[in-house]
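Homework help board

Subject: predicted structure for assignment chain

Our instructor gave us this sequence and asked us to write out the predicted structure in token form, then describe one feature. I got the tokens but I'm not sure how to describe them. Can anyone check?
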Amino acid sequence: MDGTRRTQAERAAETREALIAAARPLFAAQGFAEVALETIVRAAGVTRGALYHHFADKTELFAAVFEQV
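My token output:
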């Protein structure tokens, strides 16, 4: 790290992107119905609370993944 502090908005954006990046290959490989939220949060390295802070549910996360494709 370069010694600068990230703002809360920057950290939030990084968390959101980490969730989307982790979910994308899981949804592609296993399908929407087969991917558990716990699998996504583990792959992203965040908490379940962080997921729900950014997305109301798995469907909303899937929509965010789909929007980036």
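Reply (TA_rk): Your tokens look well-formed. For the description, you could write something like this. Residues 36 and 58 are 9 Å apart (CA to CA). That's the kind of observation they're looking for.
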